[in-house]
TrEMBL record:
It comes from the Bacteria. This is HupE / UreJ protein. The keyword NAD does not apply. Residues 1-26 form the signal peptide.
Length: 197
């Protein structure tokens, strides 16, 4: 199976996941978790960057890396919902944005297993934040499916955007430039997080 077929598989899996989870939480009301990943620049950048970096790595990484993020995000969300206090969370999330942006900027093609493990750690941190900040609602399952669906959709947007850029003249350079911007935003988020400690 060639790289293009692997990429198509990954895109299909992400679309199916997004559609099924969105439909599962469609009646959760205003407190549904689908909006939460869109309310913070840190979450938004990290999730799009995961998709873009997975496309840069190519092969099985295009579905394994985002898949690990979503799975570990679920795990982190469950920990967060249990209200276990996690110190330095905002710093860890800011580091994820810096690291993912730097990986794109430097076009780091590390082994898929290493990228998957690293992204899994980031997913746990982001999931914890979503679970910990969950509003008081009865539909915890709907909320969880909502933020997982938005995450998968942002991964898909990042992957498709990166694949599109890599197909045009100079697109790889543009993608790496966007990685630099992402990392700089992460630095600003880190500065803000440290200032609030």
């Amino acid at each position: 199976m060639n790289t293009r077929q692997h990429q198509l598989e990954g895109v299909c899996v992400a679309i199916v996941l997004a559609l099924t989870t969105f439909s599962a939480q469609a009646h959760s009301g205003i407190d549904a978790g689908w909006l939460h990943p869109l309310t913070g620049l840190d979450h938004f950048l990290a999730m799009v960057a995961v998709g873009a970096w997975s496309a840069q790595i190519g092969g099985r990484a295009i579905w394994l890396v985002p898949g690990a993020f979503v799975l570990c995000m679920l795990f982190g969300g469950l920990i967060g919902m249990s209200m276990i206090d996690l110190q330095g969370l905002e710093v860890g999330i800011a580091l994820s944005v810096i690291a993912l942006g730097a990986a794109i900027a430097l076009h780091q093609r590390m082994p898929t297993v290493v990228a998957t493990l690293g992204v899994g750690l980031f997913g746990t941190l982001h999931g914890y934040a979503h679970g910990y900040e969950m509003p008081i609602i009865d539909d915890k399952i709907g909320y969880t499916l909502g933020f997982l669906a938005t995450t998968a959709t942002l991964h898909l947007i990042g992957a498709l955007g990166a694949l599109g850029l890599m197909r045009i003249q100079g697109g790889g350079r543009i993608l790496r430039g966007l990685g630099v911007i992402c990392s700089m935003c992460g630095g600003w988020i880190m500065f803000t997080a440290v200032g609030n400690l």
